[in-house]
Specification:
Blueprint: H1 2-9, H2 14-38, H3 41-60, H4 64-91, H5 94-116, E1 131-136, E2 142-147
Antiparallel strand pairs: 1-2
């Protein structure tokens, strides 16, 4: 199976690779949710570690000197997502994991749109940066959402 995945990504563009990494985050967060449902703390922690490793990789590869504001916004997104996933894991909260997945899917969709636009590969990125909004639940818990 790993060999198939490796060959699938051989001809992929940089944007396609980013989308694949976002898919990995989503996949591992789904595994974490399944572990929460089974009350399997060890499996939850292992899945969360894999998702966080991908986020660290993505954040480490940001080029602030080239990316400007979109790169800074992505850095903020990765930082907030990292914290959100840690909170979800610490509280073993299926709802918090689902919220993190929704945030990743939103930004992933923006990357997919970039991948569909051949002009995006020719111009310097001024792409739509993820936007953060904050609200509070009735019990006072802060909720952060990301949209692209």
């Amino acid at each position: 199976m790993a060999s198939y995945r490796e060959h699938t990504l051989d001809g992929a563009s940089a944007v396609d690779l980013v989308v694949a990494l976002y898919d990995g985050i989503i996949r591992f967060l789904c595994v974490a949710i399944a572990a929460v449902e089974r009350r399997d703390a060890e499996a939850r922690r292992a899945a969360v570690k894999r998702a966080l490793d991908i986020i660290i990789h993505l954040q480490a590869r940001l080029r602030m000197d080239i990316g400007g504001r979109p790169a800074a916004a992505l850095s903020d997104f990765y930082t907030a997502l990292f914290a959100q996933i840690l909170q979800a894991s610490q509280s073993a909260s299926k709802a918090k994991f689902e919220h993190a997945i929704a945030c990743v899917k939103s930004v992933r969709e923006a990357w997919r749109q970039v991948a569909k636009d051949p002009e995006a590969y020719r111009i310097k990125p001024t792409a739509v940066a993820p936007q953060r909004s904050e609200s509070a639940t009735p019990d006072g818990v802060a909720v952060t959402s990301w949209t692209a």
